[in-house]
Amino acid sequence: MKILLHICCAPCAIYPIDILKKDGHEVTGIFYNPNIHPYAEYKKRMDTVIKYSEDIGMRLIKFDDYPMEEFLRGVVFREEKRCEYCYHLRMEYTAHIAKKGKFDGFTSTLLYSKFQDHHLLKDLGESLGKKHGTEFYYHDFRKGWKEGIRISRDLNMYRQQYCGCIYSEKERFYKKPKDKA
Fold first, then answer.
1. Which distant-in-sequence residues (6+ apart) come within 8 Å of 98 by Cβ?
2. Structure pTM?
3. What range does the domain containing 15 cover?
4. pLDDT tens digits for range 34-70
5. pLDDT digit string, tens, across residues 128-148
6. Which domain CATH number covers 21?
7. Is 179 within the bounds of a domain?
8. How far apart, in whole angstroms, are the C-alpha atoms of residue 20 and residue 109?
9. Three-state DSSP class for 34?
10. Is the peptide bond before 67 cis (omega within 30 degrees of 0)?
């Protein structure tokens, strides 16, 4: 298959790309992540993905704009469902580009992370595949979690410490004070 792989970051792409190529698929990456905040973090992740794709000779689709406002407008007042919105935003765009670019299917490196809602991602991918008339390629890449981490460290890749959005950055540092009542 000719697969379009949504890439959230380079460390999360290592194992999925390896598996997809070993299974005989032609892989093209796409970096579309308006959720990542601040811009300096977005740029670090994008630059790392660009370098890795060049190093392994993989074609990468990326955009010069940074549509963070689109993400924030969709999440504000719905913070408890922000991950669902975020998955949908990025995977819908990937499905759209997969159809437009005549790919046989699409998938996401989000399926590699043990921190993401895997069942929601699978259901969402299948639904978006039907909506856009392109196949969602499902694979549980979580088996390669430790291997991907090891390789990314060996390659001295930039490794982020939070999912990407402003809310996950807050959760990384801020711990709600306990009630004193």
1. 4, 105, 106, 132, 134
2. 0.92
3. 2-173
4. 999 999 999 999 999 999 999 999 999 998 889 889 8
5. 999 999 999 999 999 999 999
6. 3.40.50.620
7. no
8. 11
9. coil
10. no
